[in-house]
Amino acid sequence: MIDFQAVIDTLVNWGANGVLNASGWTVLAVTLVMTHLTICSVTIFLHRAQAHRAVDLHAIPSHFFRFWLWLTTGMVTKEFVAVHRKHHAKCETPEDPHSPQTRGLKALLLTGVELYRAEAKIPETLAKYGHNTPNDWIERNLYTRFSWQGVALMMIINLTLFGAIGLTVWAVQMAWIPVMATGIINGIGHYYGYRNFEAPDASTNVSPWGVLIGGEELHNNHHTYPTSAKFSVKPFEFDIGWMYIRGMEMVGLAKARKTPPQLILGELKDVADARTLEAIIANLDSAHVLRPNSSTLGSPFTSLHHTPTSFRSAVRW
Predict the structure, then answer these.
(1) Which one, of 237, 154, 153, lies nearest residue 194 by Cα?
(2) Is the pTM of this model over 0.85?
(3) How far apart are CA 277 and CA 200, in angstroms?
(4) What is the domain extent for residue 43?
(5) Which of 48, 176, 183, 304 is the most buried (most CB within 10 A)?
């Protein structure tokens, strides 16, 4: 005979504690690990590997990152890449999909996700900036076609593992990228912080230690060297995303294509040697832009003319 009371008690216990019956500290630790995996997936796969082609990833980490992003964000690779590339191409102009300089910091902090989604729906943006992204069977028939079902599956997994508190874990996961990446990096990262370089935009480094947001905190460095796989440039700066890339390089799962240039000072010479002369000759072709144009004597540097963009001054440390 079935003991219905025992069945009810089991279901109630499962609903309250999940199959793991984990303590609060364990749930917190697992939540932090999962959100960190999501940040790493965004910065390493979506941002550095796909949007900027700064690093080549082996199929194993690539497919893991794609699957994890489907579960925890629902973001489509092509849409993210297109919107982000347009951000760099049109940075701090009215065409920038998410600049706090043109849309206001409050808009980025509160409605950054809506700005991203609106731009991702524009076919011209996807066609112009979303090229060379995954287009295999699983991308077309699962990750893109059923983009929201991944996060729904994640909710079911959390509820199964942790019980009722799993819904809170899921809510934190869903808010992590909108708050950390969209709000802090796209918003504060163009408004407040310190600058190592006078990049032609308002980008700032939010913190010299890029841990919580995977190294994305070093946003001014990134905008100065956007195709670099490494975001830290100063001795006191730390990019945890670069640490993971180096770890994958050591086991053959990744290969960085570019890193920030290193200043190498050579010996001072009184007389130019052959290598110096070769370098001068090799760069003579670009020197013409500095010569006055005889056909436009009234404005000899017309070819260099541009209209400077006015930025709201970033609050410096």
Answers:
(1) 237
(2) no
(3) 32
(4) 4-265
(5) 48
